[in-house]
């Protein structure tokens, strides 16, 4: 478990290569304050990992992006899979906000939330996770988009996205930005999404399973 209550950070990685997946343990990151200039990601930079990833971010500011899976920094590595589930809760008065920066961190723009990994265009499975659960709540602020999948990563099983508070100044996607997905469930019971909600992917990618969208209240 990592608890962040203040201070300055560059980036935070939630895992390293796991030699024996049977021994894998879950990773829990709890952020209540502080300032992350880069990104927070749940698995390693590019190696395979195991064990569930749970982020609860209720304060502070992340200038980069948040991803439940791997970063995907190495073009020569075919790993980067997370053989487990992810849970991301962005609530309280947390900010995922690049302040308008158009300079990517690795391949992904800041201000985005990804349930899966950031991924890598040159490796087909990098950024893959099992199921994802992304929740936006309370008075949280997300500058750009929220994805059940990743940028170039994706959910192998079910991607769940719930908006029950907060403000998303971009869009909400059940799928990924540039990859495929399987089952998708998008639920909105409160909050504000400025530019629309979608069951599928953004730029490219198909959804092979069912898409369920619940817009309530």
Description:
The protein is an all-beta fold and 217 residues long. Helix content is 0%, strand content 34%. It is built from no helices and 20 strands. The chain has strands at 2-4, 8-9, 12-13, 27-31, 35-36, 40-41, 53-57, 61-62, 66-67, 86-90, 95-96, 113-114, 132-136, 141-142, 146-147, 158-168, 172-173, 183-193, 197-198, 211-215. Strands 1, 2, 4, 5, 7, 8, 10, 11, 13, 14, 16, 18 and 20 form a 13-stranded parallel β-sheet that branches. It is globular. The termini are far apart. The model has no long low-confidence stretch (mean pLDDT 93).
Quick overview:
The protein has 217 residues and is mostly beta strands.
Which helices and strands occur, and which strands form pairs?
Blueprint: E1 2-4, E2 8-9, E3 12-13, E4 27-31, E5 35-36, E6 40-41, E7 53-57, E8 61-62, E9 66-67, E10 86-90, E11 95-96, E12 113-114, E13 132-136, E14 141-142, E15 146-147, E16 158-168, E17 172-173, E18 183-193, E19 197-198, E20 211-215
Parallel strand pairs: 1-4, 2-5, 3-6, 4-7, 5-8, 6-9, 7-10, 8-11, 9-12, 10-13, 11-14, 12-15, 13-16, 14-16, 15-17, 16-18, 17-19, 18-20
């Amino acid at each position: 478990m990592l608890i962040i209550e203040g201070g300055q950070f560059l980036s935070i990685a939630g895992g390293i290569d796991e030699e024996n997946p049977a021994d894998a343990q879950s990773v829990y990151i709890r952020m209540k304050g502080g300032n992350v200039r880069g990104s927070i990601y749940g698995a390693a930079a590019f190696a395979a990992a195991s064990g569930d990833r749970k982020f609860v971010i209720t304060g502070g500011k992340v200038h980069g992006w948040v991803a439940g899976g791997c970063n995907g920094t190495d073009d020569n590595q075919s790993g980067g899979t997370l053989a487990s589930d992810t849970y991301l809760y962005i609530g309280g008065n947390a900010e995922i906000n690049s302040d308008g920066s158009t300079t990517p961190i690795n391949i992904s723009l800041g201000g985005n939330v990804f349930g899966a990994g950031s991924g890598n265009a040159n490796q087909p499975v990098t950024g893959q996770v099992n199921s994802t659960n992304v929740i936006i709540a309370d008075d949280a602020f997300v500058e750009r988009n929220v994805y059940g999948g990743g940028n170039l990563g994706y959910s192998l099983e079910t991607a769940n996205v719930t908006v029950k508070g907060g403000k998303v100044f971009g869009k909400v996607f059940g799928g990924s930005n540039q990859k495929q997905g399987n089952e998708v469930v998008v639920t909105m019971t409160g909050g504000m999404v400025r530019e629309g909600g979608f069951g599928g992917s953004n730029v490219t990618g198909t959804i092979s399973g069912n898409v369920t969208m619940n817009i309530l209240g």
